[in-house]
Design goal:
Layout (H helix, E strand, L loop, with lengths): L1 H18 L9 H7 L8 H13 L9 H20 L3 H8 L4 E10 L2 E11 L2 E10 L6 E6 L11 H12 L3 E5 L18 H5 L6 H15 L4 E11 L1 H12 L5 E5 L5 H6 L20 H6 L5 E7 L8 H18 L6 E6 L9 H15 L34 H9 L10 H12 L6 E11 L2 E10 L3 E9 L5 E7 L7 H9 L2 E6 L13 H10 L4 H19 L5 E6 L1 H13 L4 E7 L6 H5 L15 H4 L2 H8 L4 E4 L17
Parallel strand pairs: 4-5, 4-6, 6-7, 7-8, 8-9, 13-14, 13-15, 15-16, 16-17
Antiparallel strand pairs: 1-2, 2-3, 3-5, 10-11, 11-12, 12-14
Helix pairs in contact: 1-16, 18-19, 19-22
Length: 660
């Protein structure tokens, strides 16, 4: 009874402190200094993540025959499409939908070619604008080319995109030039690449629209009356380079691809942060099936020109990106007796991130070799054609007034979620653990120093969680503790002085933890892109955080012989992973206090958040099966308290209103 009263009094005091926006205890600079004392330093979390991600990426299999490789490649292709690209019921339905095409007006191009405007339905309600550059006098059998664009604000109107399509049209190749999500005519917030993860939260692959955009483009090209299905090319730069290798490797209809400065192995990306790609390039679980080395190898039997830039000022520079791909895929091409069909081009003029003349002419040379062998009329040299480049408004395609975007798709998908409740508590916990990739870790603790300031004593701990992560913990005591509370905060332990002082005044030993991605464990540069890398190799940031909270709670219960420890989480993000930990590992966690939690995961989608804002909240399929009220029920509602502060913080976004 006495322990319960102490806890009740402490929570009441903390609640009064937070709600009134005042501190019932004098501000304690000493506490802040102790909380902010460095323990693991700024580099360790990144080093551990790099080592972990690299170790999870599959190596190329050693095969000795074409038949063996084709069996493996076919299996990987099916699994990537079925388990990664078209994951979720809605994505499977989109896959089966017919390609709807709306042909619009034809405009004059230049000598020898014309441009047809069109739009096509990527999935029901989502239309993509496109341009078909077509020879005025096509051959009876005409090569076709899908021209994909990367991170280019003007999209298909980019001069280098136009020039490539113009030159190929003059050589007898029809090119379909398409916009991209978030670019060109689709340059809106709703098509931001980091909003595709809203679909992931609903259990539907946000990658599906990207793939369908390209595959439906190929459908249109191959439906042309004179299209030659044996001569099908795809090319693009940057994000267009990623699109090129992705569709070409997975769609056997493509016979020649030229990705330009668009990708590297996941192992390379782990060590070169410049190569960390956006959400579509690092989709959930891709690396559990195939690396980009495997995708490159899947081009064997066809032709691939890998173009990289020697001084690339963006990403995928030649010196680190190219050779691992050649080393991995080269032996497969040799099995086919076609080593020369895997070629590369290293651009030095200008050598920066580009698809300028030198890179385009390298592509034309391979087009000539593959599609026009021995044809003296095919020109791999591009003449000056700048006068034929048109302004964006001349190339604009009429789109529907209401064109469904990622956010609108997610809003529709999320309405009925979560689905039916899982009746068995054991089954529910098993399902939740599988979704977040929860792991029960052993903890190896080592002291990293101690000090006393005023009447507060601090012990600094390095805790090794399993054999992967190291997290910092500051143990603070004032007098003789009556209990132990583990504290986590969205802005890191150094931001939680008021909460820690309240707990210390209530007689608690405080263990201030910075789990994965927070506080001292936060990766300094490109943080959320590293978080995406974690999802690509099969893990989930939310599960890592919840697993660490549960592991530290278990360690603390044994270390201080308390049986269990309370947990205090400050902010909507920390509250979410602490709640997951309490739902999955009930024994070491006594009472859970959530300060400014979300009321529902629907707030992520209703608030139109992107994965760059709060990466762990976009855990694939979580909302499909569970919302936060269900997690509270699993944790035990009698064990969960909520506080709502009037003091907003920049990181947490301030108090979160409950969703009615």
């Amino acid at each position: 009874m006495m322990t319960a009263l102490v806890k009740l009094t402490r929570r009441a005091l903390a609640l009064a402190c937070l709600v009134l926006g005042t501190n019932l205890w004098a501000e304690a600079p000493a506490t802040t200094a102790l909380l902010q004392h460095p323990i693991i330093g700024p580099a360790l979390s990144l080093a551990e993540l790099q080592a972990y991600a690299e170790s999870q990426v599959p190596l190329m299999p050693k095969v000795t025959t074409v038949a063996e490789w084709e069996h493996l490649a076919g299996q990987m292709r099916r699994e990537v499409l079925d388990k990664i690209v078209f994951r979720g019921a809605a994505a499977k339905q989109w896959r089966e939908a017919k390609t709807q095409v709306d042909w619009q007006d034809t405009i004059e191009g230049g000598p020898g070619y014309h441009i047809k405007k069109l739009r096509y339905e990527v999935l029901p309600g989502l239309w993509m604008p496109a341009l078909l550059y077509q020879p005025d006098k096509p051959a009876a059998k005409m090569p076709v080319h899908l021209a994909v664009i990367g991170h280019e604000p003007v999209g298909k109107a980019a001069p280098y995109q136009q020039l490539r399509c113009i030159h190929l049209a003059k050589q007898g190749v029809a090119s379909l030039s398409i916009d991209w999500f978030g670019m060109g005519q689709l340059r809106t917030e709703g098509f931001s690449h980091y909003r595709m993860n809203q679909l992931d939260l609903c259990g539907v692959s946000g990658l599906a629209p990207y793939y369908l955009n390209m595959s439906r483009g190929l459908d249109i090209l191959l439906a042309l009356p004179s299209a030659d299905a044996r001569r099908v090319a795809v090319s693009g730069v940057s994000g267009g380079g990623w699109q090129t290798i992705f569709i070409s490797s997975l769609d056997p209809r493509v016979t020649l691809c030229n990705p330009v400065a668009g990708y590297s192995s996941f192992r390379t990306r782990a060590r070169f942060p410049t190569d960390l790609g956006d959400s579509e390039q690092t989709p959930n679980d891709l690396a559990t099936i195939a690396d980009y080395t495997h995708l490159t190898g899947m081009m064997a039997g066809r032709a691939a020109l890998l173009t990289f830039n020697s001084k690339d000022n963006c990403c995928f520079a030649t010196d680190h990106a190219l050779q691992p791909l050649l080393d991995a895929a080269g032996p497969v091409f040799k099995l086919y007796g076609q080593a020369g069909r895997l070629s590369s081009h290293d651009n030095f003029d200008p050598g920066t991130h580009n698809y300028d003349l030198d890179n385009r002419q390298a592509f034309y040379s391979v087009v000539g070799e593959e599609f026009f062998p021995g044809d003296k009329h095919f020109a791999a040299t591009e003449p000056p054609m700048e006068t034929e480049v048109k302004k964006p408004e001349q190339l604009a395609v009429v789109l529907p007034a209401a064109n469904t975007d990622f956010h609108q798709l997610a809003l529709a998908l999320s309405k009925p979620l979560p689905g039916p409740a899982i009746k068995s508590p054991k089954a529910a916990r098993g399902k939740l653990a599988a979704i977040v990739k929860f792991t029960t870790h052993a903890v190896a603790a080592s002291q990293a120093g101690e000090e006393t300031r005023g009447d507060v004593h601090a012990t600094y701990w390095k805790l090794r969680i399993g054999d992967i992560w190291t997290v910092p913990v500051v143990e603070l005591v004032k007098g003789e503790p009556k209990g132990t509370t583990l504290l986590v905060a969205d802005k890191g332990r150094g931001s939680a002085t008021a909460e820690v002082d309240a707990l210390l005044a209530g007689g608690q030993r405080v263990l201030a933890l910075d789990p994965f991605y927070f506080g001292e464990s936060k990766i300094v540069a490109r943080d959320f892109l590293h978080s995406l890398l974690v999802t690509a190799v099969g893990d989930r940031p939310l599960g890592i955080q919840a697993s660490e909270v549960a592991a530290v709670a278990r360690w603390a219960a044994g270390q201080f012989k308390t049986g269990s420890v309370d947990v205090s989480a400050v902010g909507p993000r920390s509250s979410t992973f602490a709640l997951v930990a309490a739902a999955l590992d009930r024994h070491p966690i006594g009472h859970l206090t959530l300060t400014n939690p979300m009321a529902s995961l629907h707030e992520v989608i209703d608030g139109d958040l992107s994965v760059s804002d709060k990466p762990e909240l976009f855990c694939f399929g979580l909302l499909e099966s569970f919302d936060l009220p269900q997690l509270k029920q699993m944790a035990g509602p009698e064990r969960v308290s909520e506080l709502h502060s009037t003091v907003a913080t920049a990181e947490s976004g301030g108090p979160v209103k409950s969703k009615k």
